[in-house]
Amino acid sequence: MIGRALVLAAAGVDHRRIAEELGLPESTVRGWLRRARLLAQRICEHFVGWAFELDPALAVGRPEGDGIGAVVEAIGRCGRAAVLSLGARSPWQIASSLSGGGLLCTSVPWIRPP
User: Fold this and answer.
1) Measured on CA atoms in the order 46, 6, 98, 103, is the torsion positive or negative?
2) Which residue has the higher pLDDT, 83 or 112?
3) In this model, does residue 14 exceed pLDDT 80?
4) Which among 2, 29, 96, 108 is least surrounded, fewest beta carbons within 10 Å?
5) 3-state secondary structure of 39
6) How many C-alpha atoms does 74 have within 13 Å on its Cβ side?
7) What pLDDT sits at residue 86?
8) Residue 24 exposed, middle or buried by CB count within 10 Å (0-12, 13-18, 19+)
9) Is 20 within a domain?
10) Residue 24 domain-assigned?
11) Structural domain total, the chain
12) Which of 54, 72, 59, 95 is nearest to 12 (CA)?
């Protein structure tokens, strides 16, 4: 659900429409998007680091833009590298695993690349 909300927000959909589409309270989606913006740099660095670890060719350069769009791009790069290295998986399943289930949490220790 969080992944879908981030993808829609990166495409310019506002939190009210996202909440309606996902059948969630607006306050929940608004909170997710605020947290994603707040943690965007950390999230991008984490997932680009993992992408580089899994396939250095896919991690070249920084994600375009900033904020939620960059978050979605970084998770997408990492997901692509993971699929090529480890086999078919959802990028959001990978994101959940590599963030210890706490993609938008600051208190959960994330799994760092070796």
Assistant:
1) positive
2) 83
3) yes
4) 108
5) coil
6) 28
7) 79
8) middle
9) yes
10) yes
11) 1
12) 72
